[in-house]
């Protein structure tokens, strides 16, 4: 891409000469030149067709007015009719056309829409709507796609799951624009009203398979992705402000269910005829017995992330969501599942068979129903179960629970000096092992 600068009113604006993507030419407001002339190459007998030439930003577009005049009726030097009274209809046509061109120019400049001689010509000829964003400098969907491509190549800051969320956000934007009767939308025209309409679309959209509306926090997830894209557009000076600055997202604190010990035992001892349901059950239980490991971390967990220390197994990794380090123990239930998939681990290096987050949450509802556990079953229940049932109800100190969950600690001055000791950690690991090293909690 080649960029030059043009200076207007003391401000330097980039002027993009060529690019293969979503960018065109950044046009500064200019005046338009309108000229009429008889086209001598378009003759019909002694008469010539009267043409209009529009010049804008040093580029021109020409078209016929659909009328004929003779050369002796035209003043070449002044570019006008010699006898306006004799050719009053042609004179009115020229005046009206000039007025129309100026109105098109003012309207599109006021809206921030792209202007060129060819665009004005298309609007005059009825081949383009006055408010059409065609030819806009920065369009939303191509920019989102460019953002996704950049994120896909940035393996350090964006996980495959996060990139997929951006792709899903783009699909929701396409559906929203289709509902508005548009194929795309200029970035610089996106405002808080656009965001509100997008929010209304998300909250009324129904998941085809489940035939139910999207909840508020799911909608917020897509808002956060669009907000990040628009923030990137701000940083790149493509738009002046992020429209989300004038839009406040609502947040609903989700109900945090957790499993009781007897419910964990019911799920553990239940036999499933379906392999996918059995793998789903093992995902849930493995997380419960490993510090409530998140799905994003669990599905990427490999054998080298598990180490043995003083007779106990520990998970060492940096969390995908927060990048905080995790050093959490594997309780007996997790060790049983680890040994169950030893052959798969030798073949692939992954601890558990691959399963998507969406499928996992779908299957978990069936696992709960078949096991007689009637709670809101999602993978997040494992994290709350570990923190509440396994640790808190057995007296494990809060700072140790926070460490095993992978939360950031050392925020208060007291915490800086009261570091977790190895002896304290091993004391509680041994106690939990004694409590839960029982057949009802071990997968066979």
Description:
The chain has three domains: 30-124, no CATH class; 140-246, DNA polymerase, domain 1; 261-441, Orthogonal Bundle (hpI Integrase, Chain A), CATH 1.10.443.10. It has helices spanning 88-111, 117-124, 140-153, 160-179, 192-204, 216-235, 261-269, 275-288, 295-298, 332-340, 342-348, 357-371, 380-391, 398-405, 413-417, 422-436; strands at residues 2-8, 11-18, 33-44, 47-56, 59-70, 74-75, 80-81, 206-207, 212-213, 306-309, 312-318, 325-329. It is rod-shaped, with a radius of gyration of 33 Å. By secondary structure, the chain is an alpha+beta fold. It has a three-stranded antiparallel beta sheet with strand order 3-4-5. Strands 10-11-12 form a three-stranded antiparallel beta sheet. Strand 4 (47-56) and strand 5 (59-70) form a beta hairpin.
